[in-house]
Amino acid sequence: MSEIHLTSFESTAIYAVLVVAALSLVYAYLLFRNVMAEEKGTEQMIRIWTAVREGADAYLGQQLRTILPFVGVLIFALFGSVWIAKPTPEAVEMFGGNARITIAIGRALAFILGAFFSLTVGQLGMRMAVQGNLRVAAASMRNFGDALRIAYRSGTVTGMLTDGLGLFGGTIIFIIFGKAAPDALLGFGFGGTLVALFMRVGGGIYTKAADVGADLVGKVEENLEEDDPRNAAVIADQVGDNVGDCAGMAADIFESYEVTIVSALILGLALLRITGQVYWIVFPLLVRAIGVISSIVGTFSVPVWERTISKGNAWHAMEIAYEVSSVITITFSFLLGATYIRGVDPAHWWQPPLLVSAGVIFNVIVNRLTAYFTATDKPPVQEIAKSTRFGPATTILSGLAEGYESSTWAVFTIAAAIMTSVLVYGGLGMHYSIYGVALIGIGWLTHAGNLVSMDSFGPISDNANGIGEMASMPADARKIMTDLDAVGNTTKAITKGVAIGSAVTAAVALFGSFITDINLVRPDFGEVINIADPRVFIGLLIGGGVPILFGALLVKAVARAANGMVAVVRKEFEVPGVREGTVLPDYRKAVAISTEAAQRELLPVGILVVLIPIVVGFLLKAEALGGFLAGVILSGQLLAVFMSNAGGAWDNAKKLIEEGHYGGKGSDAHKASIVGDTVGDPLKDTAGPALNPLIKVINLISLILAPIVVASDTVDLPTAIIMVILIGVMIWAIRRSKRPAQYNV
Q: What sign has the CA pseudo-torsion 286, 289, 290, 291?
């Protein structure tokens, strides 16, 4: 940082950001102690919970063993990506003749740091959720307020880990590397995003294999309740809620959080080169620090709003808390602009806080839009529920239509967010506009602590409800947990929408970084990628197809695993005494099937995601790689929102019927709604959410490749041979992913 000339205020402020990051971690620890001190409940509740905890721990251990070798190989690849490229002028200025080796080591270490932080958030977040769900179940025997407080604060532990580690990582890398930070920051972002992808894919397959299998046999064939202990898949389903919705989403939002920091700092450093002003870098870090403080205030206040204003309405209490956090962030962002930026750039002090505020506001808009298409009290879900009266076909058609429509409005909203930056900064040039998009991304995820808290609240409440049913808890306690579970379905759907929007915003900022980095190596490249160039259009077509292929492979994986799960559950019902409830089924077989199904998909997915942009870049060159990125962003966003919202709408249509509408539980309409929910499960909880990290992984790999592929306009024979080999490896990965699975039932 010494090579960047900072004022005393700026130097103090940067180190204050580290203090705020540490404060976030301290707050997480205090909440952890608070939750762990709560009562665990009866022996029967603890016995059921122990089975869930052991299954979740076993899965995460196996997943870690699968991920680490892949991460280990990529450490050397990240080192080599710098070693074979020409050092940037900033790196030479900072480190002189040692620039190449220093930056290569820095990128590799930053990659390790990003991967480690992402693993930490995912693994600790899941374990905290498992600890919380038992205590929520126990608290429900006392009162609603205690159960809400424990459920929300269990998720807040993960949220504040996300805030603290994400802010700390980006800031410490900037302090160490100064102007040369972009090279290392790419490694940091890539590490976090890659691990998030693995955790999203693995957790999503695990949870939906169990959920689909449990519903098809337990609900449709045997007319059982959601978490009836006679269902052999019920423990696997409980485990899946944690490894999918907690570990997967926590890692997902964490990597979005860190990637928005990475893109803002990279683009801020580019503007530093142009203007000589340092505030482009300092302001995003300070805003994120403000966001951490506002998240602490907001998350801590949820129980207060429940007691004083919302009076038992958990969702309203969370909304108030989020709005409080938003007001704090917007207010202090403008104060920061008026007192800090105005002193160094009087003409443009208002643009950065305005764009941060726009990010906060568009986040809220996406919240409302997602809630409209997925909430039980809104027309789309009610229309799907009505269609269940005429069978599964009309149920599925209605859900598809709502999902398609929602994706269109979502992409219009994101376009409006980007247009805001164009209107604010457009007169100053593309570099400023793209930086403005990065600031919108900063604002969008400023309250990551609130968002992760809301998301984790869902599976924690769901698991608590499951424990309540399996342990035959009192009716009043079950009512409390059912109410919390219903709120959790809404919060999960909303945070999925926010995660998708943040992914696209971050990807657009990274796309701007891609153009910026290419121009550093080849100044004649310009700021325009010509879509009329056949190579660019080929890249666009390939990019548009990748998310669809990715989604297809994941849905097939869930379907194969669900087939094995159905066979296991059916076989267990044949055991004398299981159907009658006098003998418990063997839960371990179902857990083993979900674990195996999740792990077998990680290697093919990792290979495809890493190799596809490499092959496109080296064979078709930088212009085509730019078109490829555009295709991935557009197709990925539309598909992700469609899958997430259609699946969420089907799920809540089923819950609406279970509340007594259109015949209620056991009716033909209910069975049709279960079919719709089963179709939507792998869409909303596996393939759709996994597209978020996919978009950013591909963008980050392309950004890392940019200085290498732009160095040559031709493809020599050794490169062509290597690319043919890599294409062969990708074909093998696809065939391996599609290979029929043999499960021991």
A: positive
